[in-house]
C-alpha cells in the first residue's frame, strides 16, 4: 500500500459520499436517535473531529460510536479492538462491509469517520467536513443541555473562511509535505504549512480562539492536527522547521484546548503513533514506532485565560467520558 506520489505533489482523493442525515430527512436519512452508528478511529485526525463534536454536543445517547483499531490494510479499517474482531452493533469485521452493502461496486476510499445506518448495515456518509457541521445543526434537537454553539449563524462566514485555509495549508498541508514525491513538491508544501502556522500564531496572539472568544468548529479542526504534530508530523512527515512546543502561541493554544473537557480526553497517542508509523511503510519501511515524545507537558499551564473568552459560550463543559469510551490508561498525556 503506497501513499507517496512519485511524480511530485500529493493530491487527496476527496470523492466522499455526500448523502446527509438531516432533520427533515431530505436525502432519505432523517435524524433519529439510535438509528445510526458513528465509526471512527482514534488515530485519524478527521475522525477525531467527529469524536470531539459528538462529545461536546452530548450526542452519546442518540448516536452510538464504534472504534476501529489504529491500523488498516488495502481493504479498510478493522474492528480488531472488539471481542471476536467484530463491531458489537453492526456485526462486521471491516468498515468496508458497510460501504459495499450500499455500493457493491464502491471504488473510492473506505474512510473514517463514517456513519452507518444500523437497520440496513449500509454506510450513509463519510463526508467528514459536512458530518460535524450537521451534528451541530441538524441534530440540534438532541443536544445536551448546555451544549455549545460550535457553528453559530453569526460566525459561519468567519468559521468557513478559517476552515478553508486551515484545511488547505495545515490539515491537508502536513500530508502534502509527508506524501510528496519530489523535493520541490515537499518544499512547497513545507513553506505553505509554516507560513500558515505563522499567520495563525499572529491571529491567536490576540484572541483565545480562531473565531473569537468561544470554541467553534474551526478550533476542533485545527486542534486535531496540532495535537498530532510533534508525535507524528514533525518527524514522519518532515514538517520540522519547529516542533509545536517551539511555537509559543500555538503550543499554548493547543494546551488550552487539550485541557478543555472533550478535547484532550479523546486523544490516544498510542493509536496515533501506531497508525502513521506502521501503516505508511513507503515512508517508514521498518514499521518501528518512536518511543517519544514525552507527553506530560500537555498538562502544563498555558496562560490563555489572560485573553478572556468563554470556552463554551453560554453553555457548559460536557461531563466526563463514559466508561466504555475512556481512552485506555497509558495512551493519553499522562503516558
How is the secondary structure organized here?
Layout: E1 36-41, H1 45-57, E2 64-68, H2 96-102, E3 114-117, E4 122-125, H3 128-137, H4 156-171, H5 173-178, H6 183-204, H7 217-226, H8 229-233, H9 248-258, H10 269-279
Parallel strand pairs: 1-2
Antiparallel strand pairs: 1-3, 3-4
Describe the fold and architecture.
It is a single chain. This protein has 10 helices and 4 strands. The protein has 335 residues and is mainly α. The protein has 2 domains: 36-142, Glutaredoxin, CATH 3.40.30.10; 153-325, Glutathione S-transferase Yfyf (Class Pi), Chain A, domain 2 (Up-down Bundle). Helix 4 (156-171) runs antiparallel to helix 6 (183-204) and helix 6 packs across helix 9 (248-258). The chain is globular.
Helix content: 25-40%
Q: Can you tell me the CATH topology of the largest domain?
A: Glutathione S-transferase Yfyf (Class Pi), Chain A, domain 2
Inertia-based shape: globular
> Order of strands in the sheet with the most strands?
2-1-3-4
Number of DSSP helical runs: 10
Structural domain count:
2
Structural class: mainly alpha
Give the end-to-end Cα distance, rounded to a whole number of Å.
Answer: 31 Å
Short overview:
By secondary structure, the chain is mainly alpha-helical.
Amino acid at each position: 500500500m503506497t501513499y507517496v506520489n512519485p511524480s511530485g505533489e500529493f493530491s487527496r482523493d476527496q470523492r466522499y459520499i455526500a448523502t446527509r442525515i438531516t432533520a427533515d430527512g431530505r436525502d432519505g436519512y432523517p435524524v433519529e436517535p439510535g438509528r445510526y452508528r458513528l465509526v471512527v478511529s482514534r488515530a485519524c485526525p478527521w475522525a477525531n473531529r467527529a469524536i470531539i463534536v459528538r462529545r461536546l454536543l452530548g450526542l452519546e445517547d442518540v448516536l452510538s460510536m464504534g472504534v476501529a483499531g489504529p491500523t488498516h490494510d488495502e481493504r479498510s479499517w478493522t474492528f480488531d479492538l472488539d471481542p471476536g474482531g467484530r463491531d458489537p452493533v453492526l456485526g462486521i469485521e471491516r468498515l468496508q462491509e458497510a460501504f459495499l452493502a450500499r455500493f457493491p461496486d464502491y471504488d473510492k476510499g473506505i474512510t473514517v469517520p463514517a456513519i452507518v445506518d444500523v437497520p440496513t448495515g449500509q454506510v450513509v456518509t463519510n463526508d467528514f467536513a459536512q458530518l460535524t457541521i450537521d451534528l451541530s445543526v441538524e441534530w440540534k434537537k438532541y443536544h445536551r443541555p448546555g451544549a455549545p454553539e460550535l457553528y453559530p449563524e453569526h460566525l459561519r462566514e468567519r468559521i468557513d473562511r478559517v476552515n478553508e485555509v486551515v484545511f488547505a495549508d495545515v490539515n491537508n498541508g502536513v500530508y502534502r509535505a509527508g506524501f510528496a514525491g519530489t523535493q520541490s513538491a515537499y518544499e512547497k508544501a513545507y513553506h505553505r504549512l509554516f507560513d500558515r502556522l505563522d499567520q495563525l500564531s499572529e491571529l491567536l496572539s490576540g484572541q483565545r480562539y480562531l473565531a473569537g472568544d468561544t470554541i467553534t468548529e474551526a478550533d476542533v479542526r485545527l486542534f486535531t492536527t496540532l495535537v498530532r504534530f510533534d508525535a507524528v508530523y514533525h518527524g514522519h512527515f518532515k514538517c520540522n522547521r519547529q516542533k509545536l512546543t517551539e511555537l509559543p502561541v500555538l503550543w499554548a493554544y493547543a494546551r488550552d484546548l487539550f485541557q478543555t473537557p472533550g478535547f484532550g480526553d479523546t486523544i490516544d497517542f498510542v493509536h496515533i503513533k501506531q497508525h502513521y508509523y506502521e501503516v505508511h511503510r513507503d515512508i517508514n519501511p521498518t514499521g518501528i514506532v518512536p518511543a517519544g515524545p514525552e507527553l506530560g507537558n500537555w498538562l502544563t499551564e498555558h496562560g490563555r485565560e489572560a485573553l478572556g473568552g468563554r470556552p463554551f459560550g453560554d453553555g457548559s463543559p460536557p461531563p466526563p467520558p463514559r466508561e466504555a469510551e475512556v481512552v485506555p490508561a497509558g495512551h493519553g498525556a499522562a503516558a
